[in-house]
Design goal:
Blueprint: H1 12-20, H2 39-53, H3 66-95, H4 99-115, H5 117-134, H6 141-147, H7 149-165, H8 171-183, E1 186-187, E2 192-193, E3 198-199, E4 206-207, E5 212-213, E6 218-219, E7 224-226, E8 247-248, E9 253-254, E10 259-261, E11 265-266, E12 271-272, E13 277-278, E14 287-288, H9 290-299
Parallel strand pairs: 1-4, 2-5, 3-6, 4-7, 5-8, 6-9, 7-10, 8-11, 9-12, 10-13, 12-14
Helix pairs in contact: 2-3, 2-8, 3-4, 5-7, 7-8
């Protein structure tokens, strides 16, 4: 490698040395080779799972008769082997499991994940129907499954949430952030979504980790269901694992640009208007507009 340049800049060798000295240069070194989960394989797996959940939509083959069973079985076989290996890697990386322990837990978690797929498919079909009923521009279920970014984000979330429930680290977040990058819809894998959930347009939607959403909820672009504040520990660091995001009950509609913060409850059947800012509970059946929210804030004698 070349030495220091004439202008006094660091040489290529010095740059390499500095980069190699970083503690994050090789996270798996010293324990086992090929330890890190494969981002590309995880992304491909979501596509494989979508093909299994919506067979015929993502395949160029005629899936009539026994071909359908073969197609789904082959797809799940690939998912099984890939997911077990990715879970094994992340358990060693994040939790320090040994080889035997990581393989056993990975096999158990993969089996539990696969067993949940029929329920995931049931929820997704309800989501498709909700989009069809909620969007006058939707001409068919096919159009929704093949083109709606909201359904793509919800599909990735429902899959990621199953891994989250199994307490598998890192992998659920990779799935959710990949969907975020593709759709502009950011749903933390810890959020709980009820049945018949519809995100219309979707760009800029944010749904936080401890958010709880009921059945038949519809939200539009730019909606934030976030945290109002972050309680700190004695060293000034955010306390993790506490409920800090909204609860949205059944049959709620939240229009574009609304911001709802904190562990508050939006009561069943309420309608939250566009660009509303909320940090308080809303009774069931309420209609909250920008002007009403401002009036109530000023009547209370303080800011939000």
């Amino acid at each position: 490698m070349t030495g220091r340049s004439q202008r006094g800049h660091a040489s290529l060798e010095e740059v390499v040395d500095a980069l190699c000295s970083s503690p994050h240069a090789a996270p798996g070194s010293g324990r086992t080779r090929y330890l890190l989960p494969s981002h590309s394989q995880l992304v491909d797996m979501v596509q494989q799972l979508r093909a299994v959940l919506f067979p015929g939509y993502l395949s160029e083959w005629d899936l009539g008769g026994e071909a359908l069973r073969h197609y789904i079985g082959t797809g799940l076989d690939r998912v099984t082997h890939t997911l077990q290996e990715q879970i094994r890697r992340v358990l060693v990386l994040e939790e320090g499991h040994d080889e035997t322990e990581s393989r056993a837990r990975a096999a158990e978690a993969t089996a539990a994940f696969l067993a949940r797929l029929p329920e995931v498919r049931r929820l997704l079909l309800a989501d498709v129907q909700a989009a069809y009923e909620g969007d006058p521009a939707a001409r068919s279920h096919d159009e929704i499954i093949l083109s709606y970014p909201g359904l793509l984000a919800i599909t990735s979330h429902r899959l990621a949430h199953e891994l989250y429930r199994l307490e598998i680290p890192l992998l659920p977040r990779i799935w959710s952030e990949e969907a975020h990058s593709r759709t502009g819809i950011d749903i933390h894998p810890g959020a709980r979504l009820g049945a018949s959930f519809f995100i219309d347009h979707g760009t800029g939607v944010v749904i936080g980790e401890t958010c709880r959403i009921g059945d038949r909820v519809r939200i539009y672009q730019g909606v934030t269901l976030g945290a109002k504040s972050f309680p700190l520990d004695t060293e000034g660091r955010p306390i993790k694992g506490i409920d800090r995001h909204p609860i949205v009950e059944d049959d709620v509609i939240i229009y574009s640009g609304a911001t709802i913060l904190g562990r508050i409850t939006i009561g069943r059947g309420s309608v939250i208007g566009g660009n509303v800012w909320l940090t308080r509970d809303v009774p069931p059946g309420s209609v909250i507009t920008q002007s009403r929210a401002k009036e109530e804030r000023f009547d209370a004698g303080g800011g939000i």
